[in-house]
Known about the structure:
Blueprint: H1 2-8, H2 19-31, E1 34-43, E2 49-52, E3 61-65, E4 70-77, E5 80-84, E6 90-94, E7 98-99, H3 104-234
Amino acid sequence: MLRQRRQNTSGHFGQIFSPITVFIQLAAVLFFGLVVHAETWHIKPSSEVPIRTGQGTEYKILAVVPDGLKVELLEEIDPWAKVRTPGGTEGWMLKRYLSSDPPLSEMVNILSTQKAELKEKEEEISRKYDELVTGYSQIEQEYNACLADRDDISKNYQILREDTADVIKIKQSLSDSDLEIQELRQKLAAVEQKNQNLKNNSAVKWFMAGGLVLILGWLIGLMAGRSSKKKSSLY
């Protein structure tokens, strides 16, 4: 409709907006347009994408942007969209050339970066896995060593228990032997006392026997002297 109106206007106006056209465009913006927050979109792959001063192919081309270029989406009026290029150029272009998805080349770069990151993570995970395997092997060896030590300790404990039982038996035997020795000592002391008593009694008996012999000898001598005196008196 706008193009037909512009063709019906005088040629000397060119691309100058008439008040009616401006009014219609403003009304379209107010009633049919959709104002959006500035978002980053990408130009879809195409031969050339012109950015114009207005919503129509008859408007002046401000720039031709390559595919993959990041632009800010400022406003939408189907099928047109107002954008701002990184260089600051603002204009209208067909919305079908816009996409929220990054271009294929950027996607390839992103995927390559992600692949490299994943590879680094994989290498890190592999390294950690190897460390865990090594650590597990060491722990298993230490565990086996602990089991061996436990068996040795168990054997030594059993031997110690047996030795302790033997020691207890030996101590009991020693205690019994001490009792027997004490009893034997007591018996030996009693025997020695008896022997001493016998010795004392024997000495007394021998002393008395010696004294008796002396007395008997004295008496015999005395009697013999008297008898000799009697014989001498007879002659």
